[in-house]
Design goal:
Number of strands: 26
Number of domains: 4
Radius of gyration: 51 Å
Structural class: alpha/beta
CATH class of the largest domain: Mainly Alpha
Largest sheet: 8 strands, mixed
CATH superfamily of the largest domain: Rhodopsin 7-helix transmembrane proteins
CATH topology of the largest domain: Rhopdopsin 7-helix transmembrane proteins
Length: about 800
C-alpha cells in the first residue's frame, strides 16, 4: 500500500480508495498495471514478472493525489487516499484482488466492510484486457484508433501487412473488427500471428519455440509492415525476436512496427541490456500526453532513504539499478550495494523515463476526473437534500454507482494546460498522437511526434502525418518502406488477379491497344474520350489534332495548284476558240456546244476548290450538288455533240429528213432534260437530308477530322450514278459514231474521252470507300480534276493542234472532203 506521506492538515475526511490493477480494458487508455511483486504467487516466475518502468504509473498516481490534497479548491475538508493491488498479468490473481476491493482491509469477506474511513469510491483499472474489458467506462473510442491505423496504411500505400496480437479474446476481437474494414479499403493481411505471455517456468520453452516460429513468419514475409495489437507485454515479446532467430549471424531484416496505444516501450529486468534495434523506428499510437509542471522534480525527489510509505521503491531501485540494499541479517551479499544516490535520469529509456508516458498521464487525468466528479457530487442537490434533512454530511451516505452520473460530461483543464473532457457516455473525448520511437545504441530513448488523429477537427484534417521527420529502421536506409505483395503496376498497365491468392497479389499486364491507365495499380484500363487518344506509353491521353484538307498543307497546295492550272488552260482554250470562232473547225460540231462544254469544264476545275479548306455550312451544302450539276451539264454537252455528229452525217445524205433536227433545237432537247433530271435529284437531296459540317473522331486515332457529312449517302450515290449513266450513254453513242467519214469528226475523240471519264469514276468508288478523313476528299478532288482534264485533253487537244500548228487544215475543203 502506498499513501501520500504528507497530507495537508486542512483536509480531514478520507474519501475511499483509488485502486490500480485489473479493472480496465485494453481500450481503457487511462489505465495502468503494476507488476512489482513483493510476494509473488508460487506459479509465477519472478524474473519474468518484473517491469521496472511501470513504477512511473505509481508516481503519477501519487503525484495526482498529492496535488489534489494540496489544492483547497478541490474536495475541501477531505483527504484522498488509495490502495494498490497487483494484477500479476494473471486473471485469477486479478479476480482475487477485485473481491478484496469489496472486503474489509486485511480480511477476505466480500460485501462486508466495517472500516468506514476507507470506503471505496472509484477504481482506476489495469492493462489486462480480459479481466477488465466489460467494466471500463472511461476511454476514447477504439474505432478511432482503428481508423487511424487504416489512414496511416493508406497514406504510405502499405497494403500488404502482417498482424501480431495477443493470443486471447481481446486479440481475436481486434482481428474480427479490422479485417473486413481493411479489406474494403484495399489492405490485405499477409499473416496473423498470436503471441502468449510467459506465465510459468514450465511453459517458457514452449513459448520460446512458438516465438521462434512467429519470428520466422514475420522475417520471411514480404510484408514490411506489421501491426502489433495487444497488452504492453507484447513489446517484451518483440524484444525476444533477435534472440529467437534460427540464423542469428545474419543481418536481421527490418520491419515497420505499428503499435497501438495500449503498448509502451517496456522491458523485463533481464532485458535491460538487450539490443534495441528491433524496436528502433516503431510508429506508435499513443494517447496525448504532456509534461506536468513539477512532476520531474517530484520524481527526482524519490529516494529509498527519504521516501516513506512507498512499498515499491526499494524493489524498483534494486531491479532498475541492478543492486541490493544491505541486510543486517545477512553476513554476505551478492552483487553491488545500493547507495540510494543513484540517479533515475541515468536509467535507459526502456527501463524508466523521466518524461510522463501516455499511460501515466492517463492515470493522472483519471484521478483528477474522479476528484472533480466527487467534488461535483458534494456540491449537488443531493447534498443539499441531506442538509435539509439535518443528516450528517459524509461519504458513507453515498454509493459508488452515484459517481457515474457526475463523471459523464465532466471537463477540466489539468496542470499541463490540456483540456480533459468526457462525453455523455463517459468516453474520453480525445484523439491520438502518432509517435516515432528513436532508440540510440546507448539505449537513449526519444519520442518524436510525427502526426495525430483529431476527431474534433474537420474530417479532411482528422488524420495528419509529417512523413519527412519519421526515422525508419536502419534496414530501409531512411527510404520510405514499401509493403506490397506485388510491385506497383505502373501507369500503362493494369492488375490481373492471381487465382487463389488475395487481391493484393496480382500480375501486371499492359493495357490493350487504344486504352490507358493513368495511375498506379489500376484494376482496369479505359479508353480516352473522343477528343483524345492514348500516348505511346498508354499512360496518358493526348488531345487529338484537328485536321482537314487545307490550302496550307502540301496535299491541299498540290490539288489547288493543279485545279488552278487546269482552269487557266481551259480559259486559254476558250479564248483561242473565241478568237477563231469563224474558222471551219470551230463551226463544225456545234460551236455553241463547244463553248458551253469549255465553260462547264472550267467550272468543274473551279468546283474542286470548294472541297479544299475548313468545311463550312455553305460549302458543305453546295459543293457536292454543284459538282453534280456542273458535271451533268458537261456530260450532257458531250452527249449532245455526239448525237449532233451522227445527225449531221445522216443529214448530208440526199433526201434525208434529219436536217430539220440539226440545230439548237436538238441540243436544247438533249441538254435541258439531262440537266433538269440531275437538278431534281439534288433538290430532293437538299430538302430531305442535306450535307452539313461534321467531325470525324473515329477514322484516325490521333486526329479529329473536320469534314462534310453527306447527309444522305444514298442521294450522293444517286448523283454519281446519274453521271455514270450519262457517261455510259455518251460513250456508247460516240463508240458507234467513231468511224463516220468526217475530217472534223469528234466522235472518235469523244469515245476516248468518255472511256477515260468512266475509268476514272469507276476507280473512284473503291478508292473513295477505302479512304478516310481528308484523303476521301482528296480522292474525290483528284477524280474531278482527272475526269475533267480527260475531257479537255481528248476533245480539244486535236483542235488546238490544228488551230495553232496546222492552220492549213482549218478550211472548208477539209470539212467537205470525203474519204475514198
Amino acid at each position: 500500500m502506498l499513501r501520500d506521506p504528507h497530507p495537508p492538515l486542512h483536509k480531514y475526511h478520507q474519501l475511499g480508495d483509488f485502486i490500480i490493477g485489473g479493472m480496465a480494458s485494453q481500450t481503457f487508455i487511462i489505465s495502468s498495471s503494476i507488476t512489482f511483486v513483493q510476494e509473488p504467487p508460487p506459479v509465477l516466475f519472478e524474473e519474468l514478472a518484473v517491469v521496472p518502468k511501470n513504477y512511473q504509473h505509481i508516481l503519477a498516481l501519487s503525484f495526482a493525489v498529492k496535488e489534489i490534497n494540496e489544492d483547497p479548491q478541490i474536495l475541501p475538508n477531505h483527504t484522498l487516499g488509495f490502495h494498490i493491488y497487483d494484477s500479476y498479468f494473471n486473471a485469477k490473481r486479478t479476480f482475487h484482488a477485485t473481491i478484496q476491493l469489496m472486503s474489509t482491509v486485511k480480511k477476505f469477506a466480500p460485501n462486508y466492510i466495517c472500516n468506514i474511513q476507507n470506503k471505496l469510491m472509484a477504481v482506476v483499472g489495469g492493462l489486462d484486457p480480459l479481466t477488465s474489458l466489460h467494466v471500463a467506462t472511461m476511454a476514447p473510442k477504439g474505432t478511432l484508433q482503428y481508423t487511424g491505423i487504416l489512414s496511416l496504411l493508406l497514406h504510405f500505400g502499405w497494403i500488404w501487412i502482417g498482424i501480431l496480437t495477443s493470443n486471447d479474446e481481446y486479440g481475436e476481437r481486434f482481428v474480427h473488427t479490422v479485417f473486413p474494414v481493411f479489406s474494403r479499403n484495399g489492405v490485405c493481411i499477409a499473416f496473423i500471428e498470436r503471441s502468449s505471455k510467459f506465465t510459468t517456468i514450465t511453459d517458457i520453452h514452449e513459448r520460446l519455440e512458438k516465438g521462434s516460429q512467429i519470428h520466422e513468419t514475420v522475417i520471411n514475409s514480404k510484408a514490411n509492415v506489421v501491426v502489433a495489437y495487444g497488452e504492453s507485454y507484447l513489446i517484451v515479446f518483440l524484444r525476444w525476436f533477435p534472440y529467437l532467430s534460427k540464423h542469428p549471424t545474419n543481418k536481421q531484416k527490418g520491419k515497420v512496427w505499428i503499435v497501438t496505444a495500449q503498448m509502451e516501450l517496456t522491458s523485463m529486468v533481464y532485458q535491460q541490456s538487450w539490443e534495441t534495434d528491433i524496436i528502433h523506428g516503431v510508429v506508435s499510437f499513443t494517447i496525448h500526453s504532456n509534461d506536468l509542471p513539477g512532476f520531474k522534480s517530484f520524481v527526482k525527489s524519490r529516494n529509498p532513504s527519504n521516501t516513506k510509505g512507498d512499498g515499491f521503491i526499494r524493489d524498483f531501485w534494486q531491479q532498475a539499478f541492478g543492486c541490493v540494499f544491505p541486510d543486517p541479517a545477512l553476513n554476505k551479499m551478492d552483487g553491488d550495494v545500493c547507495t540510494g544516490k543513484e540517479k533515475l535520469e541515468n536509467l535507459p529509456g526502456t527501463c524508466f523515463e523521466m518524461s510522463l508516458t501516455g499511460h501515466s498521464y492517463s492515470i493522472y487525468n483519471a484521478v483528477y476526473a474522479m476528484a472533480y466528479a466527487l467534488h461535483s457530487m458534494c456540491s449537488s442537490r443531493f447534498i443539499h437534500k441531506l442538509l435539509v434533512n439535518k443528516r450528517e454530511l459524509n461519504f458513507q451516505d453515498k454509493h459508488a454507482w452515484q459517481l457515474h452520473h457526475f463523471l459523464k460530461g465532466i471537463h477540466f483543464n489539468n496542470s499541463a494546460g490540456d483540456k480533459i473532457s468526457l462525453d455523455h457516455n463517459g468516453e474520453l473525448v480525445a484523439g491520438f498522437d502518432i509517435i516515432n520511437w528513436i532508440i540510440s545504441p546507448n539505449q537513449t530513448f526519444h519520442r518524436v511526434k510525427v502526426g495525430k488523429i483529431d476527431p474534433q477537427g474537420p474530417p479532411e484534417q482528422a488524420f495528419s502525418i509529417s512523413e519527412d521527420v519519421i526515422t525508419w529502421h536502419k534496414w530501409f536506409n531512411q527510404v520510405q518502406p514499401l509493403s506490397l505483395c506485388t510491385e506497383h503496376c505502373n501507369p500503362g498497365f493494369r492488375k490481373k488477379m492471381k487465382e487463389g491468392e488475395p487481391f493484393c497479389c496480382y500480375d501486371c499486364i499492359p493495357c490493350p491497344e487504344g486504352e490507358i491507365s493513368e495511375q498506379r495499380d489500376q484494376n482496369d484500363c479505359y479508353e480516352c474520350s473522343n477528343e483524345n487518344y492514348p500516348n505511346k506509353n498508354q499512360d496518358a491521353c493526348i488531345p487529338k489534332a484537328i485536321t482537314f484538307l487545307s490550302f496550307e498543307e502540301p496535299l491541299g497546295i498540290s490539288l489547288s495548284c493543279l485545279a488552278s492550272a487546269l482552269s487557266l488552260i481551259t480559259i486559254m482554250v476558250l479564248g483561242m476558240f473565241v478568237r477563231h470562232h469563224n474558222t471551219p473547225i470551230i463551226k463544225a460540231n456545234n460551236r455553241d456546244l463547244t463553248y458551253i462544254l469549255l465553260i462547264s469544264l472550267l467550272l468543274c476545275f473551279l468546283c474542286a476548290l470548294l472541297f479544299i479548306g475548313q468545311p463550312g455550312k455553305v460549302t458543305c451544302l453546295f459543293r457536292q450538288t454543284a459538282f453534280g450539276l456542273i458535271f451533268s451539264v458537261a456530260v450532257s454537252c458531250v452527249l449532245a455533240k455526239t448525237i449532233t455528229v451522227i445527225l449531221a452525217f445522216m443529214a448530208t445524205k440526199p433526201g434525208s429528213r434529219m436536217r430539220k433536227w440539226v440545230g439548237k433545237r436538238l441540243t436544247n432537247s438533249i441538254m435541258l432534260p439531262c440537266f433538269l433530271a440531275q437538278n431534281g435529284i439534288c433538290t430532293v437531296w437538299l430538302v430531305t437530308f442535306p450535307p452539313f459540317p461534321d467531325t470525324n473522331i473515329h477514322s484516325f486515332a490521333e486526329e479529329i477530322v473536320l469534314e462534310c457529312n453527306e447527309g444522305s449517302v444514298t442521294m450522293f450515290y444517286c448523283v454519281l450514278s446519274y453521271l455514270g449513266f450519262l457517261a455510259i450513254v455518251s460513250f456508247a453513242v460516240a463508240f458507234f459514231a467513231r468511224k463516220l467519214p468526217d475530217s472534223f469528226n469528234e466522235a472518235k475523240f469523244i469515245t476516248f474521252s468518255m472511256l477515260v471519264f468512266c475509268s476514272v469514276w469507276l476507280s473512284f468508288i473503291p478508292s473513295y470507300l477505302s479512304s478516310k478523313g481528308k484523303y476521301m476528299v482528296a480522292v474525290e478532288i483528284f477524280s474531278i480534276l482527272a475526269s475533267s482534264a480527260g475531257l479537255l485533253c481528248c476533245i480539244f487537244a486535236p483542235k488546238c493542234y490544228i488551230i495553232m500548228l496546222r492552220p492549213e487544215l482549218n478550211n472548208k475543203e477539209q470539212l467537205i472532203r470525203r474519204k475514198t
